Amino acid sequence: MRCAKISFALTVLASAAIAAPEVSMRPMPRPIESPSAATQPSATEPEMRPADPAGELSQAGFEAWIASFRDTAIAEGISADTFDTAFDGAAFDPVIVERDRSQNEFTKTIWDYLDTAVSDTRVANGRAALQERAEVLEAIEAEYGVRKEIVTAIWGLESAYGGYKGTTPTLAALATLAYEGRRAEFFENEVLAALNILQAGDTDVGSLRGSWAGAMGHTQFMPSSYLRLAVDWTGDGKRDIWGSDPSDALASTAAYLRENGWQTGVPWGVEVLLPSDFDWMSARRDNVMSLEAWREAGVTPVGQPEIPDGTGLSLLLPAGADGAAFLISDNFEVLESYNTADAYVIAVGHLADRLAGAGPLTNSWPRADRALTFDERIELQERLRDAGFDPEKIDGRIGPLTISAVRDYQSAQGLRPDGYVSLNVLTHLRDG
Fold this sequence. Notes:
The chain has 432 residues and is mainly α. It contains 17 helices and 8 strands. A 4-stranded antiparallel sheet has the order 6-5-8-7. Strands 1-2 form a two-stranded antiparallel ribbon. Strands 3-4 form a two-stranded antiparallel ribbon.
């Protein structure tokens, strides 16, 4: 049975600033591992400490942090030359701090996100990338058991097939976030991982660039994930995920998914049609049944999906009863280890299917709805708690606990219990 991971089921964080017609569609940073936990599964981010209320962050303070961290790095095996070269001229970036502190405020509906993530342009470019890199992608699929279309879809969402890998100096970005202090240990570990990458000679300081949050290369690996799972596919002695040849990055992505439990031959999920009299209370991540059992419940897959016998599937309604519905497998959760946003995983899966020749989704979306703001999500969770339907965490994150609380509230109120976190539910809570 799947664990109940926190994931954004209905709203996703805004993507990186647009710098090209097709950019990274990463809605939020994925979990980051500590380099000291090289053999452990992916860990979620630690709790944030409160932001410095005085806001007294500066270049001088940043340089003092670097100076103080130098001894720590050397004690962890980083040479003085590597450290000094890495931080020569490094600058504190207040924009990174602002983006990190405010990212929960920016939301999109899942349909707005998918419109861009699986646009006709991204599909066309992905099919061209599949054709151009066919030999290496087929070899990677044979080695790791991960569909070439899945790997290509991640590449497409993370860096627009290598067209936009990010230009932010990775060490400066990570050090900025470590110095800012809310997740100091978290980002200090990433700084150490990035220094280890440089010391190993996989790349140089000038090439060590990526997103504002420290993700790097064609498929946006965090430094600690890189240390643990990146591979030298080309055999040149370097694990190069930054250069013009994406082979190492694509193979590393497949290795990452396999390490996190990817099941060969099992689809990430399939779109389904639901009967008008469907039992909405059965649409839970912990309600895992076979395809045949779902068929008996009136659920009809779109098309003729190939699903191995014995595959456990649960029903996901990312926009409630009036939106698209999916039966999802354990491979959905494996993709969540790469990025915990449900919208991102659906985008990867659907883009992969489109690259393999499938058409657009059959179901429509409730496009008249809007996403709740961060403050509204907090209010909804508080009102659920006060009404006796405790979501357990008041954090503005719409995960399984909040969805379950909404479903229970809807059922108690005689509403359709589809678990859809919407303005209508919030309004009903306010009026109640």
